[in-house]
């Protein structure tokens, strides 16, 4: 159901059609005409007329002797087009800007590219220090907060495959190079919902990373970065609290 709006909307039938499509989408099994009309705010005859039109344009299919309604395959084309033009940076920017302003620390946004996380955006804080990260730079998944956040979303088989085929080269004295320790670290990240990077990718830099995953698709990850000497328990609690909030807001906007 659509949320109420202050502006008058044009095309009431379109809104009714969306209610029908939403119900079909959310149903565990393809619904019948009766099941649809029992669950949307319109008469059975209205539902039937709209379904006929939706079927004509390919938005739904009516199949089987019991006439069950399925979403049309045309939505696959729409989905592919949407994914091809989707810009996570554009969606995430306002929430990451707010996160930077609240924490007063640098906020980064990255996307997965093979076995690296590539820095897509970097929102510098007023208290910024010299981070070696730059736009377009790739970072190892095993050593960076964003990378470990992404690894925490991998199914067990995929994570084991990554560990088996990746050489853990030390970047600092704190880089985790033992595969069992890294696996335990990733499992902890998965349990708590965020990744901690304690001078593992760059000396004396502390980061908290959050994955951006929705409907089993990895959109990327973001992190809050600060010099280690500036991160106390109070700061860390703030990073986690506000990072989770930004994560929820971004995923809701996707």
Automatic annotation (TrEMBL):
UniProt entry tagged with the keyword Ribosomal protein: no
Domain IclR-ED: 74-254
Gene3D superfamilies, A to Z: 3.30.450.40, Winged helix-like DNA-binding domain superfamily/Winged helix DNA-binding domain
Record has Cytoplasm as a keyword: no
Domain HTH iclR-type: 11-73
SMART domains, alphabetized: HTH_ICLR
GO biological process, one term: negative regulation of DNA-templated transcription
Superkingdom, taxonomy of origin: Bacteria
PROSITE patterns: HTH_ICLR, ICLR_ED
Keyword field: DNA-binding, Transcription, Transcription regulation
GO molecular function list: DNA binding; DNA-binding transcription factor activity
Pfam families: HTH_IclR (PF09339), IclR_C (PF01614)
UniProt-recorded name of the protein: IclR family transcriptional regulator
């Amino acid at each position: 159901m659509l949320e109420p709006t202050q502006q008058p909307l044009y095309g009431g039938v379109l809104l009714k059609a969306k209610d029908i499509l939403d119900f079909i989408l959310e149903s565990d099994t393809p619904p019948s005409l009766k099941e649809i009309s029992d669950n949307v705010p319109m008469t059975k005859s209205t539902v039937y007329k709209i379904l006929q039109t939706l079927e004509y344009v390919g938005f739904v299919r009516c199949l089987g002797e019991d006439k069950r309604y399925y979403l049309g395959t045309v939505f696959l084309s729409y989905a592919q087009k949407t994914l091809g033009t989707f810009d996570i940076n554009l969606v995430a920017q306002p929430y990451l800007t707010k996160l930077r302003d609240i924490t007063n620390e640098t906020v980064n946004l990255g996307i997965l590219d093979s076995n690296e996380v590539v820095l897509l955006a970097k929102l510098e804080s007023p208290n910024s220090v010299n981070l070696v990260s730059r736009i377009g730079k790739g970072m190892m998944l095993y050593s960076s907060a964003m990378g470990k956040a992404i690894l925490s979303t991998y199914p067990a088989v995929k994570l084991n495959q990554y560990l088996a085929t990746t050489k853990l080269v030390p970047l600092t004295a704190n880089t985790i190079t033992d595969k069992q320790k890294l696996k335990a670290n990733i499992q902890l990240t998965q349990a708590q919902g965020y990744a901690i990077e304690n001078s593992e990718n760059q000396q004396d830099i502390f980061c908290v990373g959050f994955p951006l995953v929705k409907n089993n698709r990895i959109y990327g990850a973001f992190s809050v970065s600060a010099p280690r000497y500036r991160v106390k328990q109070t700061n860390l609690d703030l990073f986690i609290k506000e990072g989770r909030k930004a994560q929820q807001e971004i995923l809701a906007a996707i």
